[in-house]
């Protein structure tokens, strides 16, 4: 009996992974926030890429090794856990599984409810449950602030993104709603590739048109449509503003940070509405 008790006492507690490799931007965002720097063996190159900036941690992750993930590169880092987004880099995924390297598949989040469950799961798997709870608590504070400051009634809006994509659902829609914006991008006008023609944007004439990209012209062909001269037809009817919405590229607790931008623009559109009506 004494030996059994001693055996139980000396059993090791759950050991958090000590050499974590992340192979995709959206897992980089989580790993950086949940794992101490000294236990991150590498993130994907997108984590610190600035051409263009696609990461919310681009300035903070400097000094952590970054890689273009391949089987050879990952194996050279001697990881005890590789964090991957489900469905990405299937060849690497299969090779690691076959070689017995632990792989953690992270599902895509389609809602803030998904974000909660994924964040909690990763906190447990990466040995950082309290950090995960703190991330979700901060998310809840930002949600409460967004709802409290949202204009009422909400303004009609379209988020128009590079190549002509328009937000019509998912987490982005949830954040727009809590910030006081009703997404009026007409789903019936979407093309087979999911883009929204400029003509449909003009015909809808929302109170607020958020141009999700760079205000400068020529940095990338994808941004050309955001500068289409036909959009000038909305002047006097629609508040048009460029906004950087990097937190929305990868769904996570940090995505709610976009609510402040949405809220500021919604309040601006509401304040300008009387002047537009006079014209």
Structural notes for this entry:
This protein has about 280 residues and is of the alpha/beta class. The strands form two sheets. The protein has a five-stranded parallel beta sheet, with helices on both faces. Strands 6, 7, 8, 9 and 10 form a five-stranded mixed beta sheet that branches. It is elongated.
Task: Give a topology summary.
Elements: H1 2-9, E1 20-22, H2 25-34, E2 40-44, E3 66-67, H3 71-76, E4 81-85, H4 90-98, E5 103-106, H5 112-125, H6 129-149, E6 155-161, E7 165-166, H7 170-178, E8 181-183, H8 198-204, E9 208-211, E10 239-242, H9 258-278
Parallel strand pairs: 1-2, 1-4, 2-3, 4-5, 6-8, 6-9, 9-10
Antiparallel strand pairs: 6-7
Count of helical regions = 9
Structural class: alpha/beta
Helix content: 25-40%
Ends distance: 88 Å
- Care to count the β-strands? 10
- Order of SSEs: HEHEEHEHEHHEEHEHEEH
Summarize the structure.
The chain has 9 helices and 10 strands. With 279 residues, the protein is an alpha/beta fold.
Observed structural traits:
disordered N terminus, five-stranded mixed sheet, 279 residues, five-stranded parallel sheet, alpha/beta
